[in-house]
C-alpha cells in the first residue's frame, strides 16, 4: 500500500493512457483569458525533454524587474500562477510562468516534490539571465515551488536577487505525516514507508529533503507568506524556516486561511505586502 501510495503521489496519468497516478495537470486557461499578452517558449532540458514557459512583458517598456513563478505539486502555471501574475504585472514587472517537468506543457509525467524540480529552477533562472531580463530577478514559488526554490539555492547554488516563498513545507517527512493526519490515516509507520518507497522509485533520499535546513543558505532578501490555518505546515515550522533565512526578511501571516492560493484569499493584503517587499529591493 505504501509503495502504491508513493507511486500515485509522484506520477501523473495522461488522457487515453491509463496508469496509476494523479491526472496530469493541464493548462486549460491562458494569459490572454485575463487580458495579458504573452508568448510561449520552451527551455530544452535535453534532446527529449523541455520546460514550457509563458513570457508576459510588463505594462511599461520600463520594467521594474522580472519575477519567475513556479507552481505547487500537481498543479500548472494556468491553475496557480495567473492570479499572482496579474498583481506582478500591475506592479510593473516582467513575468515568466514555468511548468515544472511532468505538468502542464512541459515534458514528462513525474514529480519529485521539489528535488529534481530544483534543477528546473536553475534552468529557468539561467534562461532569464541569458536573455538579459531586467533585474532584480525574483523567484516566486507556491508550496512545492517554494521547496524547489530553497533546494536550488542550497544545493544548486543559484543566486537570485530575491525570493518570495508562499506556503512552503519544512520537511518532506513531516509534510507527509501532516497530510495523513488530515486524512485520518495513522501517521506511523505509513509516512516513513511512503517516503522510503518514493526515495527508491526516484533515486533520492526523501528523509533529508528539508527546506527548513536549505533556508540557512538563503542570503538574498526573502518574503515568506503563510496561512495560519494551514494543515500541512504548522506556524512553528514556518517560524523555523523564517529564523533560518540569512538575509533581510519579511514574514506575512494570513490569519483566516489554510493551504490556499493566498492572493485569491485576500488580494489587497497579498498585494500590499508583496509591493512593500519589492519596493525595498
Attribute tags:
globular, 10 strands, 11 helices, alpha/beta, eight-stranded mixed β-sheet, 37% helix, two-stranded parallel ribbon
Could you characterize what this model shows?
The chain has 281 residues and is α/β, with parallel strands linked by helices. Helices cover 37% and strands 18% of the residues. It has helices at residues 2-10, 77-80, 82-90, 117-130, 144-155, 172-183, 190-202, 211-214, 235-244, 262-265, 267-279, and strands at 12-13, 22-23, 39-44, 50-56, 66-70, 94-98, 137-142, 162-166, 222-227, 249-254. It has an 8-stranded mixed beta sheet with strand order 3-4-6-5-7-8-9-10, with helices on both faces. The protein has a two-stranded parallel ribbon with strand order 1-2. α5 (144-155) links the parallel β7 and β8 (162-166). α1 (2-10) crosses α7, α4 packs across α5 and α6 crosses α7 (190-202). The longest helix is centred in the middle third of the chain and has 14 residues, at 117-130. The radius of gyration is 18 Å and the shape is globular. The termini are far apart. The model has no long low-confidence stretch (mean pLDDT 96).
Shape: globular
Beta-strand portion reads 15-25%
Number of DSSP strand runs? 10
Question: In percent, how helical is the residue content?
Answer: 25-40%
Q: Quick one: biggest sheet?
A: 8 strands, mixed
Mean pLDDT: 96
Number of helices: 11
Radius of gyration: 18 Å
Q: Which residues sit in consecutive blocks of at least 5 with pLDDT less than 50?
A: none
Q: Give the termini separation.
A: 48 Å
Structural class: alpha/beta
Note the run of SSEs as H and E: HEEEEEHHEHEHEHHHEHEHH
Strand arrangement, major sheet:
3-4-6-5-7-8-9-10
